[in-house]
Design brief:
By secondary structure, the chain is an alpha/beta fold. It has 36 helices and 20 strands. The structure holds thiamine diphosphate and magnesium ion. The site of thiamine diphosphate (TPP) has 18 residues, from helix 4.
Length: about 900
């Protein structure tokens, strides 16, 4: 409520003054004066509240509404059929005991929002690049229902909603992995759609700024729930969209005022709250609050008393008005002021109930979309007021409506009647799907509207052009080692990326992405070499303009310096990593980040990238719990490989030497972009400098598969295997053991994760085919002599190397970095976590003693030399 008016006469003088300016000089002049007045108020320290929010009504005045050109009645008939079929999909899926679930109320509130888009705005992919649409996950039945009417899906498909094991069915939610030629974006984990959509729009502009893919007037539409907007990811990047003036981006927030458990803001107004947030972030905000049946009522509100009630009403009350009907609304809304009650005295209770909300009025929605696509200079958010469970009888707007999967016969009949669905009482219990005959006016209209817009959607492009492999030299250069120079694997990776950027074949597709860590990774030379993308260019002289590696921002910049937002940088990576599909133009993004702030931070986005079949490289730099040594507990990563292994199509590697990095990246480009396999790569790199040997002959295959023999022995009695920088400790342990006459082999394991995958595959294949010749796992092939014990050591938790235990037939000991990290020297940390050369030697000696290769006195000698402390605290408990 506005504060009490202490002097109404003075107030009306001010209002008269501004009214006369509006009438005589126009709205712009009036706004100018108001801004001046506001500035004056600011000088006195006041912050006017009207800057961010406007009254609770439609942003577009009736006189400025663009007129919807189509056939309203025809469209209503089509929309009603879509509504019915969407309902039928869910009701039929839940008719038996399978409890397949599904949602009715989300789509029923959003149907008009989608329909107007499909009829007039969403571009298909015929002869053009389609609009990119992030559908609200829970509205999937409605999208399937439209595809059914369009003839793309049949009744059997609809009956396979949520049944995907036996035959390809319809996925519960948008999942490109499960429906690769249909869904483009996984959205159902709340908050991911909004942030991914914002970065999609950002990348769309990046691609066109670099002249790779023309933008034309392609749009990104993001549909999301009002409850969903509470996810930090949903709002976390809206400032970027405003700052970057992403006019190609349109958010449609379905404000049905409810989430799963109850009201989104029972005690407040979510639309007003969101208006403030988005306007503050530089967006155009279009509120679609009231439907056209309200227009004549609002027109009668000369004194603004109805508006006062609208501004004050709480969302919790608004929900009641739909749940409890017209009489209740008259009494509890209009009757708040006797003059307002008078305005609706000619309306029946039924008329009052039917006063439609903006999001259910195609005219209002059309006007909003029309304004959104024609506005420039900023992204647009449409805040549409709707009713959750619209049309489903007594379950409309009730607090449990989100989870309705079954409806009483009465409610189904109410729905049928409300939307005039041609299903008789006799048939209704079967809940039949309804599709008019092919030659019916409805079907013709439907097809025509889509044909005009470039064909049906959703559609996903599964494949794009095959790329040519880059120049071999980029990789082979690194095969000869570092020639006594001490370098880090991060430097090696950056060298490969820098060379790839210059490659004639694929250079333009390489995009280095960082979340403000380029200097940490030694990438600052790229600032000047390729430039940092900025839609504004560089309108200032950089502080370091006189330096060789100055901070160069440019409109055509290649590098994405996204600032300190791992979620944002990852979303940008995902947009590029799926460009082969969404832009028909494969890109090869390399996202470099502190490995600790990778999967641990953004795993849900990485999972979604897997679903979306992203292709590209993730470089987890400064990795290793003891290799990144000074930064302490919150930086030192000893588990990102475990996390990456949970994503089925993510191939991860923990290499030690530069030639390994070169081989892995070369193979990655081959697999993802030449052979078109849907993988993405996670490669950890380190900041420890050491010498890199030349690549042993024939190692490539093993590097790719996950392990190869690095150091031989004539008669080995033990095998030391290791990964990352800890492989160097295994190499040192080999020397230590030699002093005691113990011969050992050293194996470099580039990926325990891939060795496990191979093991699982081979084991399963053997189990399913007992009559066929038994195959060996790759680990078994490598370790052909089963009697030689194996000691593994890595900079990761033991669980990482433990994964291959089933495939090692000999005695197997695993060392690792379980426990919280801490800062100290690398040597102290490795001793602390017991992964240093001494600890590896100790483990080897103990194993050889257990297997009767060493006797007690030999063991004692080694333990004494190593100064083994039996009371040393357990690293994962201190
Ligand atoms: C990250 C995440 N948390 C929780 C859920 C479970 N969930 C699914 S829908 C829903 C409520 C959605 O409300 P809203 O965003 O308002 O959408 P509506 O259905 O009302 O349109 C919740 C909590 C989810 N899908 N994702
Ligand atoms: Mg909601």
């Amino acid at each position: 409520m506005s504060p009490e008016d202490k002097d109404p006469i003075e107030t009306s003088e001010w209002l008269d003054a501004i009214n006369s300016v509006i009438e005589e000089e126009g709205i712009e002049r009036a706004s100018f004066l108001m801004t001046k007045l506001a500035k004056r108020l600011n000088e006195e320290g006041a912050i006017p509240t009207y800057n961010l929010t406007t009254p609770f009504r439609n942003s577009i005045p009736v006189k400025d509404e663009a007129q919807m050109p189509g056939d309203l009645f025809m469209e209503r008939r089509i929309r009603s059929l879509i509504r019915w079929n969407a309902l039928a999909i869910v009701l039929r899926a839940n008719k038996n005991e399978d409890d397949l679930g599904g949602h009715i109320s989300t789509f029923s509130s959003a149907a008009t929002l989608y329909d107007v888009g499909f009829n007039y705005f969403f571009r298909g992919s015929e002869g053009q690049l389609e609009d990119l649409i992030y559908y609200q996950g829970h509205s999937s039945p409605g999208i399937y229902a439209r595809s059914f009417l369009e003839g793309y899906l049949n009744e059997e498909d609809l009956d396979n909603f949520r049944r995907e094991v036996q035959k390809p069915g319809l996925s519960s939610y948008p999942h490109p992995w499960l429906m690769p030629d249909y869904w483009q974006f996984p959205t159902v984990s709340m908050g991911l759609g909004p942030i991914m959509g914002i970065y999609q729009a950002h990348i769309m502009r990046y691609m066109s700024a670099r002249g790779l893919v023309p933008r034309n007037d392609r749009k990104v539409w993001v549909f999301c729930g009002d409850g969903e907007m509470d996810e930090p990811e949903s709002k976390g990047a809206i400032a970027l969209a405003g700052r970057e003036s992403l006019e190609n981006l349109i958010f449609v927030i379905n404000c049905n005022l409810q989430r799963l458990d109850g009201p989104v803001r029972g005690n407040g107004k979510i639309i007003q709250e969101l208006e403030g947030s988005f306007r503050g972030a530089g967006w155009n905000v279009i509120k679609v609050v009231w439907g056209r049946k309200w227009d004549p009522i609002i027109a009668k509100d000369k004194e603004g008393k109805l508006q006062d009630i609208m501004d004050a009403v709480l969302d919790g009350e608004m929900q009641n008005f739909k749940a409890k009907g017209g009489a209740y609304t008259r009494e509890n809304f209009f009757a708040k002021d006797p003059d307002v009650l008078k305005i609706v005295e000619d309306l029946t209770d039924e008329d009052i109930y039917k006063l439609n909300r903006g999001g259910h009025d195609p005219y209002k929605v059309y006007a909003a979309y029309h304004k959104a696509i024609n506005s420039s200079g900023a992204p647009t958010v449409i805040l549409a007021l709707t009713t959750k469970g619209y049309g489903i009888g007594s379950r409309e707007a009730d607090n449990t409506t989100h989870q309705v999967k079954k409806l009483s016969l009465d409610n189904i009949k109410a729905f049928r009647d409300k939307f005039n669905i041609p299903v008789t009482d006799e048939d209704i219990e079967k809940i039949p799907y309804v599709r008019p005959p092919e030659d019916s006016p409805e079907m013709q209209y439907l097809r025509k509207t889509r044909a005009n817009l470039g064909g049906p959607i959703p559609r996903r492009r599964k494949e794009s052009e095959v790329l040519r492999a880059p120049d071999e030299k980029t990789f082979t250069k690194l095969y000869s080692g570092s020639e006594e120079r001490k370098i880090s694997t991060t430097m090696a990776a950056v060298r490969v990326i820098t060379d790839l950027l210059k490659d004639k074949e694929i250079g333009k597709r390489i995009v280095p992405i960082v979340p403000d860590e380029a200097r940490t990774f030694g990438m600052e030379a790229l600032f000047r070499q390729v430039g940092i993308y900025s839609s504004a260019g560089q309108n200032y002289e950089p502080e370091d303009a006189d330096k060789v590696m100055w901070y160069k921002e440019s409109k055509e910049g290649v590098m994405l310096e996204e600032g300190i937002t791992e979620a944002g940088a990852f979303s940008a990576w995902t947009a590029l990593a799926t460009a082969y599909s969404n832009y028909d133009f494969p890109m090869i993004p390399f996202y470099l980040f502190y490995s600790m702030f990778g999967f641990q931070r953004i795993h849900d986005l990485a999972w979604a990238a897997g679903d979306a079949q992203a292709k590209g490289f993730l470089i987890g730099a400064t990795s290793g719990r003891t290799t990144l040594n000074g930064e302490g507990l919150q930086h030192q990563d000893g588990h990102s490989h475990i996390l990456s292994s949970t994503i089925p199509n993510c191939l991860s590697y923990d290499p030690t030497f530069s030639y390994e990095i070169a081989v892995i990246i070369k193979d990655g480009i081959q697999k993802m972009y030449v052979e078109q396999k849907n993988y993405f790569y996670y490669i950890t790199t380190m900041n420890e400098n050491y010498e890199h040997p030349p690549m042993p002959k024939g190692a490539e295959d093993g590097i790719i598969k996950g392990m190869y023999k690095l150091l031989h022995a004539k008669k080995p009695v033990i095998r030391l295997i290791g990964s990352g920088s800890i492989l160097n400790e295994s190499i040192k342990a080999k020397d230590l053991l030699t002093k005691y006459g113990i011969e050992s082999e050293v194996w470099s394991v580039t990926s325990f994760n891939l060795l496990r995958k191979d093991g699982m595959e081979v084991e399963r294949r053997n189990q399913l085919n007992p009559n066929k010749k038994e195959l060996k796992t790759y680990v078994e092939e490598c370790f052909d002599d089963n009697s030689i014990p194996v000691i593994a050591s890595t900079d990761y938790m033991r669980a990482y190397a433990e994964q291959i235990r089933p495939y090692i037939k000999a005695d197997y000991t695993v060392l690792g970095t379980d426990g919280f990290g801490r800062s100290d020297s690398r040597a102290s940390l490795r001793e602390f976590f017991e992964i240093d050369a001494n600890s590896i030697t100790r483990a080897a000696a103990y194993t050889l003693f257990k297997t009767n290769v060493l006797d007690k006195s030999q063991l004692k000698q080694i333990y004494d030399d190593l100064e083994v402390d039996p009371l040393k605290p357990n690293p994962w408990e201190v």
